[in-house]
Amino acid sequence: MANNQQKQCQLCQRQMEYLTVHHLVPRQNTKRKKQDPGPTANICSACHRQIHVLFDNKLLALELNTLDKLKDEPQMQKFLVWVRKLFPREAGISPSLKNKVGWRKRVAPGEYAITRLVP
């Protein structure tokens, strides 16, 4: 990795080359109302993907809207234990993400979202 500044995922604590910005209150809940998008967390793509696989935006907005609440949720705890064992802290990003910088579009079932990679 050139310029290999590693950053720590705020959920799984792994050191990663790139992190994504996760809106703790989903943007669909704030954008339509023209509200401030609220706090964000810098997390790895594996954690980000898992959050949106496990939980819908309504639950994220109403109940799982802080890092502590996400970490304490039983399904997420199970995933975090698994991902820490599978991918040690020294692991970099997946080959498919190498050389990607800036914005990328992620498609979840039934919705579109823009995810910003944190350089």
In words, what does this structure look like?
It is a single chain. With 119 residues, the chain is an alpha+beta fold. The protein has one domain (7-118). The protein is 34% helix and 23% strand. The chain has 5 helices and 6 strands; from the N terminus they run βββαβααααββ. It has helices spanning 27-31, 45-54, 57-62, 67-72, 74-86; strands spanning 7-8, 15-16, 19-23, 40-43, 103-108, 111-118. It has a 4-stranded antiparallel β-sheet with strand order 4-3-6-5, with helices on one face. Residues 88-108 and 110-115 have low confidence and may be disordered.
Explain briefly what this protein structure is.
The protein has five helices and six strands; from the N terminus they run βββαβααααββ.
Describe how the helices and strands are arranged.
Layout: E1 7-8, E2 15-16, E3 19-23, H1 27-31, E4 40-43, H2 45-54, H3 57-62, H4 67-72, H5 74-86, E5 103-108, E6 111-118
Antiparallel strand pairs: 1-2, 3-4, 3-6, 5-6
Helix pairs in contact: 2-5
Mean pLDDT: 75
Using only C-alpha atoms, the radius of gyration works out to 14 Å
Beta strand count: 6
Tell me the helix content.
Answer: 25-40%
How much of the sequence is in beta strands? 15-25%
**How far apart are the termini?**
13 Å
- One letter per element, helices H and strands E, the order comes to EEEHEHHHHEE
How many domains in all? Answer: 1
